[in-house]
């Protein structure tokens, strides 16, 4: 990254003076950091050109991969696209001892990996000029960056490798996979946005929406030096413009958990047709050679694993074969834009001889247990939500994600509302826990919903699309990344995600004004954001 990676220990004080040398207002949001709302980057505290803003707060988070990016109202997408993002890594004693037992070292075999796409002009300069349609769909790029590098190659010792993945794209969803020897390499998901999962989970793919972090562990202990291991985006349906009733079949598996939330209204929304045509009208079948194909130096070892789809995926990515048909939104994208859901290589890891013994444990050993990332109050709230006698006592708020208006005027809304700097439509009692039901309309787009200031637990996914159900890890429809503390959660078209928000964090000031918004930065800048008053 060009920007500093802050590595701080829990309990330390973090102080920083920001000088705004831009020609427009800005403010830094510490994404996932438990800092007071005046420190957290509320757009009310934007610093104008030439102004400064002083940050000074105690770091109370448990160990986690957090990050920072601008949060001025209306131009967050522009400034993030210019590259104003970086990591904020919190470490603590438990996590350091876990890393030591595993033999991973930050910067060597424990690597922050920020993934973002940008739109570049022929001279390589970033272009950011969203039209009203782009504010509805999101700004997709024609170039993929890993830690600000294209075609990134990273040397890693042939041992355990911990990757702290961040989707820093403005709008692009990723379906992360790992390939080695021309076949999918299963990995272990160990942490989500706010820290470690309750138990490690094996996976071959994870969806990551803008704003989300996922920590994965690769076991490369048996790998010979000079082996190439690729971090890839796997093909998927971006679901940009779903129509009523899409994918209704096969959703029964997750309908039983909450009949109320699972019932979908079938009200006609004819005004949406202009802005979001049906997917079927916008299929494209052109060939999209992988820009990274020429850089692949992997040999074909013939060691194919996994099912047919994954082998085909490997072929697409390795040999630059044509991408699967994908929908690309309400308007034709410039020819060279990477369609969302098309496969590409993000970065290639190259193994080297380990400089130290890879791990204290013999090869057959499972990694050590994960550190505990849940505070006592968070655990108590989860227990309350799971116990039949108390679960109905938890207050529920419902949030409906939908497009309002028509044509160029249409905006993504939360409960029909867009951002008003001074309105506080969401109110929560301090030191409480609430269940929030995030319901995305059927005819919609995926929306990664981010809450500032507090973490939440995903309780269940209802009416998930097939490609999400396929990755479910439990009977509640939850995927691997749902099984740890979260601050950003992806809600697919037609889906309802039930989360339990832990508002118990003891901020010194009783009243806290935070934000709840979509992390598709064009959606956010167009107003898909609301104030949350906790008092
Ligand atoms: Cu959105």
From TrEMBL:
Residues 236-337 are annotated as: Disordered. GO terms for molecular function: copper ion binding; oxidoreductase activity. Residues 3-94, 405-535 form the Plastocyanin-like domain. Residues 239-257, 294-314 have a biased composition (Basic and acidic residues). InterPro entries: Cu-oxidase-like_N, Cu-oxidase_C, Cu-oxidase_fam, Cu_oxidase_Cu_BS, Cupredoxin. It holds the Pfam family Cu-oxidase_3. This is Multicopper oxidase. It comes from Desulfovibrio psychrotolerans.
